[in-house]
Structure formats: C-alpha cells, structure tokens
Amino acid sequence: MIRMMERNVFWKTLFVLVLVVFINGDPIPGLGGEIVENQQTTQDMFRQSLPLAKSGDAAAQYRVGVIYFDGLGGVPKDRKEGLKWLRLAAEGGFREAQAQLGRIYETGEGVNVDYAQARELYEAAAAQGHGKAAMALGAMYLTGAGVSQNDAQALSWFSVANEKGVAEAAYYLGLLYETGAEKIRNPEKARHYFMQAAEQGNVQAQFKVGEFFTRGIGGEQNHDLALSWLTKAAEAGHVEAQWYLGIMYAKGRGVEQNLRKAEEWYLRAAGQGHPSAMFNLALLYETGGPQMAADPQQAYIWFSLCETVVEEGPREYAKKAVEKIQTGLSDQDLERAEKEISGFRPIIEIY
C-alpha cells in the first residue's frame, strides 16, 4: 500500500487530474478537433447535429448532449436534456459519451454520485481504447473511490492509459512502482516511467528523476543528471526540488558549494511555505560562511516564521535562536523584522 502521506497527496492530485482530463475532454467530433468557444460555430454545429441525433447518430447525440449539458454556444444550459442525449450516445456505444457520463457520475455534476455507474461507463469506454477512461479507472482503484483500493488494478489501468498516450499515466506508474504494494515495487521500473514522464514535461516526475539520480535508486548515481533534472523542476516551481537544490548547494553535495545559490533556492521554497526550507534558510543566515556573511535580522525573521511549522527538534532550536538573536538587534531592526514576519504570506508557484 502506498504510504499514508503519499496517499493523501494522490487523493488531491488525482481529483484535480480527473477534472482536468474530462472537463477539457477529447475533441467533440465535428468541431475541427477542439471544443471551441466561438458561439456561431457551436450554434451551427448544434443545428446540424440535432436532426442527426434524432435519427440515431451516436456522435451527433454526444455533441448535442455536451452542448445542452454545458450550455455552449448560446444554447440554454439544460442538464436533464444533456443527460438524455449523452445516455443515448453511450448506449449506442459512443466511447466519448461513455467517458463523459462516467465523469459526470463520478463527480456528481448534475446527478447523484454513482461510482458503480461511473466505473461501468469508464470500463465500456476503455474497452474501446479510450485512454483517459482507463486513466480514470486507475485513479479509482488507486484511491479506493467507489471500489476496493487495489494497487494492482490501478497499475493495470494506468498501463493501458500509458499505452494509449495519456501523458499523466507514466508518472503514476512510476509512483506505484516506487511506493505501491510490496509485490509491485520495482525501483528500475519506477525510474523508467519517471524518466518517460519527465521527458514529457511532467514537473513532479522531473523532481523524482533528479531524486533517483541523486540517490542512485533503480540505477546509477549521477550528480550531473540529478542537478539538471532538479533544476528543471525547481525552475518550474516544484517546492521540494527547490529545497533539495538549496541543500545541495549549501552542503556541496554533488556540486561545488555555493551559499548564494543555496540562499536563492531556499528562498524560493521558503516563499512557498516549505517548513524545512524556512529552517535551513534561517540557519544559513545565522551562521553565514564562504561568500556570504551572517545576517542576524534575516535569521530572526525566518526562525520566527518557521517556529510554528517545523518539527519538535528544529522548533526548539528556532525558539532559542529567536530569543538569542533578539537581544542583539536594535529596536529599529527588530521593528522592521516584525513587520516582515507579520506580512509574510506563502505564495504557491503553480506549474
């Protein structure tokens, strides 16, 4: 079973993932490959599709259903009418309708949540090669949403999704091979799929690849490649990668020690509210070192900020450090520091 901490991250990530996958959706046939917002185009398509839908054309039924359900192109939103047409299209075997209805029943958008119905519809769409439906099934089994949690089933469906070219699938395969059920774990396969996802631009996977190269998990240890992948992820806003790079530069692990670089990456991570980065940054300002003088005021600020969010050991250290540094600051410096502390708000970098 995936560790509880990882599982909680999965829940949040996969909820967003399912919404992104199906709200964006696969192309609506007849719209030139995209669901467009051009009202006239959508109205024209609706007028052309409605008689075809009434004659039993499943693709047209799907188009009409989506337009009614979401109120596209100036057509009044009518969830009931939209569901009617989507159900007809799904019953006619149109895989896009099956996948869309699966999402609707899973999320309870305009209907009562019905996981059994969602699973049945996803399975019907996946059986026809719908990669995103397979991805949704993997998410259900991974998180236990309406089904018995089963890492092996999740792995199977994510594998199908990956074969169908769903970009997110490789990352979740990597996570399952890294931290899934004991019989599934395989560091070499985890590394393989993380690398695939990283090369596709998945920022979380780029961090994982960097971590694997740093520690030599599932293959060779390579600090140059670790630095390259971690930097890609960090520049994109990945907070753990930013913290990781701060440590590497502060300690000279796999790179030449550079405290200014360490400060730069600690600041990025601390600015996102990363507790350990905040503590490491405070330590850096407290002690200083080559290329960088100590900065008691900044040390005071960051020890104060991290005092309530770090674990017990660092918390006690931070508390004592604040008391000690405070005595050496002027009233003016202390006032400026307290103003910065009270005004601090973490800003999450979106990637």
Describe it:
By secondary structure, the protein is an all-alpha fold. It is built from 18 helices and no strands. It has helices spanning 4-24, 39-54, 58-70, 79-91, 95-107, 115-127, 131-143, 151-163, 169-179, 187-199, 203-215, 223-235, 239-251, 259-271, 275-287, 296-306, 312-326, 331-343. The longest helix is centred in the N-terminal third of the chain and has 21 residues, at 4-24. It is elongated.
What's the gist of this structure?
With 351 residues, the protein is mainly alpha-helical. The protein has helices at residues 4-24, 39-54, 58-70, 79-91, 95-107, 115-127, 131-143, 151-163, 169-179, 187-199, 203-215, 223-235, 239-251, 259-271, 275-287, 296-306, 312-326, 331-343.
Q: Which band does the percent of strand residues land in?
A: under 5%
Helix content: 55-70%
User: What is the mean predicted local confidence, pLDDT?
Assistant: 90
Would you identify the regions where 5 or more consecutive residues have pLDDT less than 50?
A: 1-25, 27-36
The biggest sheet amounts to: none
Please state the structural category. mainly alpha
Q: What is the 3D shape? A: elongated
Helix count, DSSP H or I runs of 4 or more residues: 18
The succession of helices and strands, N to C, reads HHHHHHHHHHHHHHHHHH
Rg, rounded, reads: 26 Å
The tally of strands reads 0
Distance between the termini: 28 Å
